[in-house]
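User: Just a sanity check before I run the rest of the batch. Below are the C-alpha cells for the first item. I only need the designed sequence back.
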C-alpha cells in the first residue's frame, strides 16, 4: 500500500505538515519521526493539513493521538497543540468514535501561515517491517489506553501485532 506524501512548512513558531494520499500504517513511522524531530526543534503548534488526505487508518490516528497527548497531557488543546485543517467527515467521525477528538482543534478553510515560512521535504526513514509493526502496535496501545471502549475494537489487532513483532525480533537475532 502506498504511503502518504508528507511535506512540511515551518515558520518561527508553527509547523504545518501536509498529508496527501493515504495516511496509513506504512507512512506512520515517517510521520512519527517527523513529529518528534519538529517537537525536538522547539515547535509547539502544529497544523496538519488534511485537504488532500483521502484516508486515515487506525495506526496513523493512534500516532497522531499519541502526539496530541504528549503535547497536552491534560488533554485539552491550547496554544500548544495540533490543529487539523480540512479533515474529512470520515476522519472527524473516527476521531470522535475513538475518543481522540478532544485532542485537536478542527478547522476548515485555507491554510494561513502568519509568518515567513520555509518549505522542506522530509526524508523517509525507509521503515523496516519491524519498525512498521512496532509503530502500529504502539499506536493501537495508545488508542486502547486513551479510551476503554477501544479495547474491544483493537485488542485482537494489538495481540496479533505483538506476536508478529516478537517473531520479527527473534528472526533478527
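Assistant: Here's the designed sequence for the first item:
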Amino acid at each position: 500500500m502506498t504511503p502518504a506524501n508528507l511535506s512540511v512548512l515551518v515558520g518561527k513558531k508553527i509547523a504545518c505538515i501536509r498529508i496527501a494520499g493515504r495516511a496509513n500504517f506504512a507512512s506512520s513511522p515517517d510521520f512519527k519521526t517527523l513529529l518528534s524531530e519538529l517537537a525536538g526543534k522547539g515547535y509547539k503548534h502544529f497544523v496538519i493539513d488534511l485537504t488532500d488526505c483521502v484516508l486515515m487508518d487506525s495506526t496513523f490516528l493512534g500516532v497522531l493521538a499519541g502526539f496530541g497527548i504528549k503535547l497536552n497531557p491534560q488533554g485539552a488543546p491550547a496554544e500548544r497543540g495540533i490543529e487539523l485543517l480540512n479533515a474529512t467527515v470520515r476522519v472527524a467521525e473516527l476521531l470522535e468514535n475513538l475518543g481522540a477528538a478532544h485532542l485537536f482543534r478542527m478547522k476548515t478553510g485555507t491554510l494561513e501561515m502568519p509568518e515567513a515560512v520555509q518549505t522542506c521535504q522530509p526524508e523517509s526513514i525507509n521503515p523496516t517491517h519491524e519498525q512498521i509493526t512496532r509503530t502500529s502496535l504502539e499506536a493501537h496501545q495508545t488508542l486502547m489506553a486513551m479510551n476503554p471502549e477501544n479495547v474491544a475494537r483493537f485488542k485482537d489487532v494489538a495481540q496479533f501485532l505483538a506476536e508478529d513483532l516478537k517473531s520479527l525480533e527473534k528472526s533478527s537475532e
